[in-house]
């Protein structure tokens, strides 16, 4: 049964009073900033002189460093992709069909709930699934394991994931079957059909999105003053976690992200997508399906340090585009 969650408060409870926690998951309160309508949970600000504990190298210390001397923090950080990194595993059987149904859920239900309130559709990874940033009166809609969860302030309602229609009823947003007309998103199909999603599928998708989110938050720190780095978001129409950075006027802007797979890629992959046509003489641009570069899930499985392999891939893209040395 789902519980009321506050990801930053959960993290803060493990730290000493002089420490401030930063996390990857959405946390209340809702933010009213008209650009994002979401808090930047991993960002380090200049509020105090306290020691800031971060999932990236931006703070005073990292969750990964604290995890080495504290078993409780090690377990907490590992479960939330904050540090003590676990390895990605193989793709579970039946994941292709499940991925498509999870894409439908993310777009037609979860994102629709947020967009109906503030016009924003971007999502975030959250523990054991994915969900909206908090919006309105501290509301979050999320998938947690195989439960659809509606959290509103201090109350929470949840139900097992069955069909799009049932999920939409729980969330309280009418199901718009024509919502995807202008996006390359799977057709909703029969809204009363039981989705082909089981617990191993959600666990794998969550791990993939958590891994990619943690890597991209580190990558975002490399942005220079003219690179206009975007937030890291889970885009419900593409069903991938991505960010953009680089000077568009200098033809250096690109998207950096990780997809759990699509029509051209049966398994997950990382990618770099330049906004302008890629230099055909650079071997890095190896993926003709979208004119960019990709690193396959199989390559990550073979890597001794998966996180470093992902960062190396992305930073090579930055280097070729002139954003990193």
Number of β-strand runs: 13
Which sequence of SSEs, written as H and E, runs from N to C?
HEEEHHHEEEEEHHEEEEEHH
Global morphology: globular
Oligomer: single chain
The secondary-structure class comes to alpha+beta
Overall average residue pLDDT: 95
Taken as a percent bin, the fraction of beta residues is 15-25%
Taking Cα atoms only, what radius of gyration do you get, to the nearest Å?
19 Å
- Tally of discrete structural domains: 2
* Helical fraction: 25-40%
**Low-pLDDT ranges:** none
Largest sheet: 5 strands, antiparallel
Number of helices: 8
Distance between the termini: 49 Å
Read across the widest sheet, the strand sequence of neighbours is 4-5-6-7-8
Q: Can you walk through the features of this model?
A:
By secondary structure, the chain is an alpha+beta fold. The protein folds into two domains: 7-79, no CATH class; 86-325, no CATH class. It is built from eight helices and 13 strands. The termini are far apart. The mean pLDDT is 95.
Gist?
With 325 residues, the chain is of the alpha+beta class.
Write the layout of secondary structure elements.
Blueprint: H1 7-12, E1 19-21, E2 51-54, E3 61-62, H2 63-67, H3 71-79, H4 95-118, E4 124-126, E5 129-131, E6 139-144, E7 147-152, E8 155-160, H5 164-171, H6 199-219, E9 233-235, E10 240-245, E11 254-259, E12 269-274, E13 293-296, H7 297-302, H8 306-320
Parallel strand pairs: 1-2, 2-3
Antiparallel strand pairs: 4-5, 5-6, 6-7, 7-8, 9-10, 10-11, 11-12, 12-13
Helix pairs in contact: 4-5, 6-8
């Amino acid at each position: 049964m789902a519980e009321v969650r506050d990801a930053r408060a959960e993290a803060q409870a493990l730290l000493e009073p002089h420490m401030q926690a930063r996390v990857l998951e959405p946390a209340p309160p809702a933010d009213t900033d008209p650009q994002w309508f979401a808090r930047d949970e991993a960002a380090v600000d200049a509020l105090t002189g306290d020691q800031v504990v971060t999932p990236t190298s931006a703070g005073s210390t990292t969750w990964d460093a604290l995890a080495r001397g504290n078993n409780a923090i090690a377990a907490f950080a590992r479960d939330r992709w904050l540090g003590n990194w676990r390895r990605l595993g193989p793709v579970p059987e039946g994941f292709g069909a499940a991925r498509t149904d999870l894409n439908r859920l993310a777009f037609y239900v979860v994102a629709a709930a947020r967009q109906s309130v503030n016009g924003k559709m971007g999502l975030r990874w959250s523990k054991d699934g994915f969900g909206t940033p908090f919006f309105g009166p501290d509301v979050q809609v999320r998938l947690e394991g195989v439960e659809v969860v509606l959290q509103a302030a201090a109350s929470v309602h949840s139900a097992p994931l069955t069909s799009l229609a049932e999920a939409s009823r729980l969330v309280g947003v009418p199901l718009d079957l024509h919502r995807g007309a202008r996006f390359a998103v799977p057709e909703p199909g029969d809204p009363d059909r039981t989705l082909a999603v089981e617990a191993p599928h959600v666990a794998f998708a969550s791990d993939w999105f958590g891994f990619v989110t943690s890597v991209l938050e580190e990558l975002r720190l490399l942005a220079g003053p003219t690179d206009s780095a975007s937030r890291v978001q889970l885009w419900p129409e593409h069903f991938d976690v991505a960010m953009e950075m680089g000077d568009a006027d200098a033809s250096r802007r690109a998207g950096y992200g990780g997809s759990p797979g699509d029509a051209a890629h049966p398994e997950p992959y990382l990618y770099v997508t330049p906004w302008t046509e890629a230099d055909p003489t650079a071997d890095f641009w190896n993926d003709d399906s979208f004119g960019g570069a990709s690193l396959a899930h199989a390559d990550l499985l073979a890597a001794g340090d998966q996180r470093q392999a992902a960062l190396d891939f992305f930073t090579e893209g930055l280097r070729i585009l002139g954003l990193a040395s």
